[in-house]
Specification:
Blueprint lengths: L1 H17 L3 H10 L2 H5 L2 E9 L2 E6 H14 L2 E12 L2 E10 L2 E12 L2 E10 L1
Parallel strand pairs: 1-6
Antiparallel strand pairs: 1-2, 3-4, 4-5, 5-6
Pfam families: DUF4783
Organism: Ginsengibacter hankyongi
Keywords: Signal
Length: 124
């Protein structure tokens, strides 16, 4: 029985290292790092930018965000509200850029043993 409990505890601790951290996504937003964000994308991701909204593949979404961050150099990202519920997490925050502040929504969902980004919204 002790071996079983030890095995379960070990699996839980390992899985916490394997699944991406919501904090890592926030750090990538603060850095305006599209490549790092892309490592957390689901197979398709919904991205909303001022004037356009679409569902993109991982590689398309990375290019879209790279262009967005190139035009809107990030100064900071501040979380206003964060919540998690039944295997999903989201936050609402302000992305401060050289061109103004964008109200930003981040939605992640548990998919298998990892968390993936399913939606990013940047609204003026």
């Amino acid at each position: 029985m002790k071996n079983f409990l030890l095995s379960v505890a070990l699996l839980v601790s390992i899985s916490s290292f394997i699944s991406p951290s919501f904090d890592d996504v926030v750090k990538a937003l603060k850095a305006g790092d599209a490549s790092h964000l892309a490592t957390y994308f689901d197979n398709t991701i919904e991205i909303t930018l001022p004037g356009k909204s679409n569902s993109y593949s991982k590689s398309q979404a990375e290019l879209v965000l790279h262009d967005f961050f190139a035009s809107n150099t990030v100064k900071d990202f501040e979380i206003l509200h964060k919540s998690d519920n039944s295997g999903s997490q989201y936050c609402i925050g302000n992305l401060k850029t050289i061109n103004g502040t964008f109200r930003t929504t981040v939605f992640m969902k548990q998919k298998g043993t990892t968390e993936v980004l399913q939606e990013l919204r940047f609204e003026k």
